[in-house]
Amino acid sequence: MKPYLSVVIPAYNEEYNLRTGVLESVYGYLDKQKYSWEILFVDDGSSDATAKIAGEFAKKHNNFFVLKEPHRGKGGTVIAGMLRAKGEIILFTDTDQATPIDQLEKILPKFNKGYDVVIGSRHGREGAPLVRKIMAYGFSLLRLLVLRLPFKDTQCGFKAFTDSASRETFKRLRLFKADGESSGASVTAGFDLEILYVARKLGYKIAEVPVDWHHKEGTKVDPIKDSIEGLKGLLSVRINALQGKYKV
């Protein structure tokens, strides 16, 4: 039976966060809901105990599934999960739950109003270092100038799609693919930009909703490296667009 909601959780070396009880938190919240759901935990070829802990959790909890994927970075891992998900609505969210799963209560009503894609927007970025806030401001200006994306926050790891919007968007991505390769921790900063650019190109109706967000210690974001990668991703999306690679 097709579930109403699929939750995709990409993970790379998240042993610390798993041991703090994030899976119990997500599962406990969903277990109280009246709608049907599934959780797809997608392990990105972790080198620590992430896959083992998730596998043990799956044995004791219904509707929780673990996908073991080769390491390819967050982008490819999210795509793999999104294309395997069976829900009418499909959400991807970060393992550390910087945006808590209960923020779904702000996201889901938008689908009843005809939206195809609903993205979380972090307001205030509580606890985030000053350098990350400066990065976010600069990046927002660049994406508006280069890609004409009219969103306040494209990088929040809390995005939901109708099943058709998910399928049509994710299969058209060019920078990040489900069969790519990577090494080390990689948050693939241009990934969210390409998603939103393609979704707009396809004509999907997109809503941006303020969500709670809390800075988590141990984040894999590297201010310098990810700023450079984000700029590369932004320019690559623009080049692909000019070359007609996103034609529908």
Automatic annotation (TrEMBL):
Species for this entry: Candidatus Woesebacteria bacterium GW2011_GWA1_40_43
Sequence intervals crossing the membrane: none
Family of the protein in this entry: Belongs to the glycosyltransferase 2 family.
Localization per Swiss-Prot or TrEMBL: Endoplasmic reticulum membrane
CDD domains attached to this UniProt entry: DPG_synthase
Endoplasmic reticulum found in the keyword field: yes
Organism classification: Bacteria, Candidatus Woeseibacteriota
Top-rank taxon: Bacteria
Domain Glycosyltransferase 2-like stretches: 6-165
Identification of the protein by name: dolichyl-phosphate beta-glucosyltransferase
GO biological process, one term: protein N-linked glycosylation
